[in-house]
Amino acid sequence: MSESANTRPRVVVLGGGFAGIGAARTLKDVDVDVVVIDRHDYHTFQPLLYQVATDLLPQSTVGHPLRDLFNEQPNARVHKTAVTRIDLAQREVQLADMAPLAYDYLVLGLGAEVNYFGVEGAAEHAFPLYTLPDALRLKEHILGRWEAADKDPSLIEDGAVNVVIVGGGPTGVESAGSVAELYRNLFVKDYPDIPQEKARIVLVEAGPQIFAMFKAKLRTYAEKALDKRGVEIQTGEVVESITPTRVKLKSGAVLPAHTLIWGAGLQANRLVQSLGIELEKGNRVPAEPDLSVVGHSEVFAVGDIGWITDTKKGAVLPQLGSVALETGKHAGENIARLVEGKETEPFEYFDKGTMATIGRGAAVIQMPRGRTMTGRAAALAWGSVHLALLSTGEDRAKAIVEWTWAGFSHERSARITVRTDET
Ligand SMILES: Cc1cc2nc3c(=O)[nH]c(=O)nc-3n(C[C@H](O)[C@H](O)[C@H](O)COP(=O)(O)OP(=O)(O)OC[C@H]3O[C@@H](n4cnc5c(N)ncnc54)[C@H](O)[C@@H]3O)c2cc1C
């Protein structure tokens, strides 16, 4: 494909997440030119970021080269650059270090970003978990705090090895469970002079319970699994402010902790605020049943950025990897229909259930018709669903090796810090 000598329609896909990849790959055999834009040269597998942050998986399992995903797709090109503006009226996308790109069809798959809800100090001191750099920063920070406390024990009382996790949804619970297993199974041996009872892991949730989206029995199971791993749960508590070493709660309590993981909220990519259309809750872009953007039949909102209603149930779909992949594929199919002069079709979500893992052999699953699963069987099902989402067989193989090894041995081989500014 030559971008200068185009005669066929150009589809610009913004974002190489599950949604963007789903759309771009679906267009493989369609008579269009596909241009995929992402600020990274890799696809990020967000559901496993916490496993990079807690040393269970190496970064290469969770980030896969974007270009590799399109090597076998002659009608596609990938550019690593940041989108700076989207002009719906001119049908043009402006980019950080490339000439503007005109489009015939546009796929908006730029995902979501952290929402700190204005909590004082959060933007400066909290650790979010949305990107690979986020995960690596958190990993290095935790390892660094343990090394510092090992050399200066007075730091232990100051909260150097304590971790506060904000948000009792899947991101918060999965992170809490994984930090706990890292601490209780490995750091207990790595740092024999730091007593584990002095290393607090506190999960803070504003609502009355964690895992609000799950049935009561799954919530109880998760609470017990976290308690067994030494995680303290504080519900009905809201974080008011954060400093590098303290977390202040609205109740007045102050938790000494040098690490705060933010898993409490997200909003659509901020670029949508300049689209000139009325946005929904969390700044999400309202999508028509066929996933096109209201008033722009050539633009499709897919994945986390979209406010997408399940046409069967009439409910707004959650921001999940499976929703992103399915909506991306559907947008690709609808673009193919338009190119062939056909009508678009409404999107129908195929719900595989809601699931989350708490630790080794501990997970919860709630099926669409209400059936539930816990324990090892649920952990295995969780693993297979997530392996299916991983982009290539090579990634799957790497993840299986690391998970299997961790399962048998409690070992986490990725717990080293390699810095390029050191000798
Ligand atoms: C910690 C965590 C755990 C999760 N766990 C689960 C889970 O267990 N199961 C599940 O189903 N879902 C889970 N999710 C949700 C799931 O990962 C998301 O719903 C999914 O990744 C959304 O896909 P997307 O393609 O819409 O957006 P993203 O995956 O966010 O992709 C957006 C892409 O756009 C790029 N981009 C953003 N801004 C720009 C810009 N200005 N210029 C250029 N490129 C840009 C980004 O680099 C990124 O590659 C989790 C999410 C997180 C953060």
Question: Describe it for me?
Answer:
The protein has 423 residues and is α/β, with parallel strands linked by helices. The chain has 12 helices and 26 strands. It has helices at residues 18-26, 49-53, 59-62, 66-69, 122-125, 132-151, 154-157, 170-190, 216-228, 321-339, 375-389, 393-409; strands at residues 10-14, 33-38, 42-44, 63-65, 76-80, 83-87, 92-95, 101-102, 105-108, 112-114, 127-128, 163-166, 201-205, 231-235, 239-242, 246-249, 254-256, 259-262, 266-268, 285-286, 292-293, 296-301, 306-307, 354-359, 362-366, 372-374. The strands form 8 sheets. It has a 6-stranded mixed β-sheet with strand order 5-2-1-9-22-21, with helices on one face. The structure holds flavin-adenine dinucleotide. Flavin-adenine dinucleotide is lined by residues 15-20, 37-40, 44, 46-47, 49-50, 82-83, 109-111, 129-130, 170-171, 269, 271, 303-305, 319-322, 324. Flavin-adenine dinucleotide binds next to helix 1, strand 2, helix 2, helix 8 and helix 10.
